[in-house]
Design a protein that fits this description.
alpha/beta, TIM Barrel, eight-stranded parallel beta sheet, 10 helices, globular, binds L-Erythrulose, binds manganese (II) ion
Length: 274
């Protein structure tokens, strides 16, 4: 299992040189801690020269594990489930930019918070219909570029639909695109899933999983709370999962400290899994 951690580049505010300087320094720092890659949370991927990014990655034998798209909803208000068609179109267009960036950097595109939240003008049923039809359009683009989309069940405090793994699996199966895969986040699993059934269910869905997010029960670094990472990660390893587990936490006390303590905890844990 490969390890990465989420970082952002502030590409909407920085001048070009500063973007690549920032990227280089994060990648060098992560390499020194023996990470395999970096997960990028971006707002405007089209502002970044992918040739430069690829050059920096290749010279250090590092990868971009996945691209986070949630800022599209948080900062621009565009979402795949929005009740207005014009806003849904904007969200789909933004996913298109992420897909192009992913193609050029050999990464994958996360479909998480970009699904949005329904407002008073809508309701959960309409929102689901909108998400499904928007997602079909995103899958068509992903198929053309041969890029994977990672559908992420997210807890019900943050989003209104597809909170559980089984609801998400049903949607993935209904859409039936080879380019639509599952992202499992330990924090959302902890909040939403039934502890009596989840481990067996994870074994069943593991073949659909193409990315994993890690945060402890406190949403801080793995090892700081009481989530059972050993059982969680063993399930994927025993199912032959060779993809990334990516640390996505509240970055406190600092990004550097979270990166260090997570690596200390996870490298020991991974060694203990037979
Ligand atoms: C996105 O990966 C995610 O897990 C959301 O909960 C972000 O807050
Ligand atoms: Mn996540």
């Amino acid at each position: 299992m490969k390890l990465s951690i989420v970082a952002s580049l502030n590409e909407n505010r920085l001048i070009q040189d500063e973007i690549y300087k920032k990227f280089t320094s994060i990648v060098d720092f992560l390499k020194s801690l023996l990470y395999d890659g970096i997960e990028l949370s971006l707002l405007e991927p089209e502002k970044i020269d992918t040739n430069k990014i690829v050059e920096i990655l290749e010279s250090r034998d590092m990868e971009i594990s996945a691209l986070g798209t949630g800022s599209t909803f948080i900062r621009f208000g565009y979402s795949l489930g929005h009740h207005e068609e014009s806003i849904r179109k904007k969200a789909i267009e933004r996913v298109g930019e992420f897909i192009k960036f992913a193609k050029e950097t050999n990464s994958k595109v996360i479909i998480g918070l970009i699904r949005g939240r329904y407002a008073h003008e809508s309701n959960p049923k309409k929102e689901r219909v909108n998400i499904e039809s928007s997602l079909k359009e995103c899958c068509r683009m992903a198929e053309i570029y041969d890029v994977e989309l990672l559908f992420e069940p997210i807890n019900s405090f943050e989003i209104d639909s597809y909170n559980t793994i089984s609801e998400s699996v049903n949607l993935i199966e209904k859409i039936g695109s080879d380019n639509l895969r599952l992202l499992i986040d330990s924090f959302h699993t902890y909040l939403e899933e039934d502890p009596g059934f989840i481990w067996d269910y994870l074994k069943k869905v593991a073949p659909l999983v193409s990315h994993v997010h890690l945060a402890d029960s406190t949403r801080r670094a793995p090892g700081s709370g009481h989530f059972d990472f050993k059982t969680f990660l063993s399930t994927f390893i025993h199912a032959g999962y060779k993809g990334y587990a990516s640390i996505e936490t509240i970055m406190k006390p600092s990004f550097e400290e979270v990166a260090r303590s997570s690596m200390d905890f996870l490298s020991l844990l991974l060694k203990s899994i037979k």
